[in-house]
Amino acid sequence: MKQLPENYPGRILVEEYSQALKERTLSAIQASAVFDKFNFPLMVYITAWNHKDDTIWYEFVGQQFMDLLESNATDISTVFRDSIQDQRLFHYTDLSESEVEEEVISRRQISDTRHNLREKVEKNKQVEAVYQIASPAGRIIWLKDRGRVEVFPDDNITLTLGCLTDVTKEMGQKELLEQIGYFDDLTGLPKRNIMQKLFEVRCGERQRGYIEAFSVIMIDIDHFKLVNDTHGHQMGDFVLKELASLMTLLKRKEEDIGRYGGEEFYGICRGEIQSGVNFAERVRRNIESHVFSHNGISIHITISAGVASTEEMDEGTMSDLLGLADNRLYQAKHEGRNKVVGNQ
Q1: Are the C-beta atoms of 65 and 76 separated by less than 8 Å?
Q2: 3-state secondary structure at position 13
Q3: How many CA atoms lie within 13 A of 276 on its CB side?
Q4: CA distance 312 to 331
Q5: Contact between residue 125 and residue 148 where contact means Cβ atoms under 8 Å apart
């Protein structure tokens, strides 16, 4: 074995492990040390998990991470564990990794679930979590953890090559938005009370000349009461959640969506009315062909939509624009549903 890295805190390079594991560990340490040297805004680390005695330790710790926790490489595993207030895990719920569920694990639960969490990480071959920690200086800090997992079964060792980033500002904003009721509990979409804020932002962009116009879209699920009456409210809730996920996938950066209430959704789209109509049509076509499957039941649904644009009125409030879009939604319903109605 080559000379040990300076201030090496680990075990693999000095204990009885395979040459393959030692070489991989050493190369990872050397690469991490070079990365750490340039003070990128990332805290790199390498951990090892021994399956035999269920212990975990650091093979490498970035200097920024040690500075943050006011610790050294040998003690940081214990210091970090003791500083964690809660842990957020993110689970992908489909093969396209487009829908993500957040699992919150409290400080009290972490020790009870640690073994199961490690097994999940090993199975998924990746780490993706956010930790809330209390620093020695008394600050509450959020750290996002992303890492890649490598398993060495002959040694009963799992390596995690990862990095931590400080996302305190982002998580603080997320918590604030949740506290003021920004997100709908069922669908995860912005609620109706944020629609006015989006309208004001788009009006400001228009006044400053950043955009020429924007559209408001009102969307309603056709015959939604029949879904609940026929298949039950669990199926109805599933349809609402699935529809929200599909619209999230379909929207582009210039488009916003939210839940207006019940089976109604709203959209706000930069651009002239045709942009809003195109967005609504994109959603309508995809919903029409999508199979909603839940608990052995598969159904199809359709939506109707009304679109109104600021280009249609010299001055107007959100209420005016929303009223026009709502009238066109009811026109789409009257003309047979599964239809988008814009400027005639």
Answers
A1: yes
A2: coil
A3: 31
A4: 18
A5: yes
Find the DSSP H helices in 70-211.
76-83, 107-124, 168-179, 195-207
Q: Which is catalytic among the residues 59, 242, 255, 263? A: 263
Burial of residue 19, with CB atoms counted within 10 A of its CB: 0-12 exposed, 13-18 middle, 19 or more buried: exposed
Helix, strand, coil abundance in the chain, percent, nearest 5: 40, 30, 30
Question: For residue range 277-311, what is the model confidence (pLDDT) as tens digits?
Answer: 999 999 999 999 999 999 999 999 999 999 999 98
Q: Which tokens in the block code for residue 258? A: 């939210």
C-alpha distances in Å from residue 329, one per residue of 276, 316, 317, 336, 340:
13, 19, 19, 11, 8
Residue pair 18/155 in contact by the 8 Å Cβ criterion: yes
Contact 344, 281 (CB under 8 A): no
**Sheet bearing 43-50, strands edge to edge:** 55-61, 43-50, 157-166, 140-152, 126-134, 84-92, 100-106
* Contact assessment for residue 276 and residue 321, using Cβ atoms and an 8 Å cutoff: no
Quick check: is 311 catalytic? no
pLDDT digits (tens, 9 = 90+) for 111-129: 555 566 667 767 777 888 8
Q: Which helix (H) or strand (E) holds 309?
A: strand 303-309
Q: Is 94 helix (H, G, I), strand (E, B) or coil?
A: coil
Q: Which two tokens stand for residue 57?
A: 């330790």
Cβ burial of 54 (10 Å; 0-12, 13-18, 19+) is: exposed
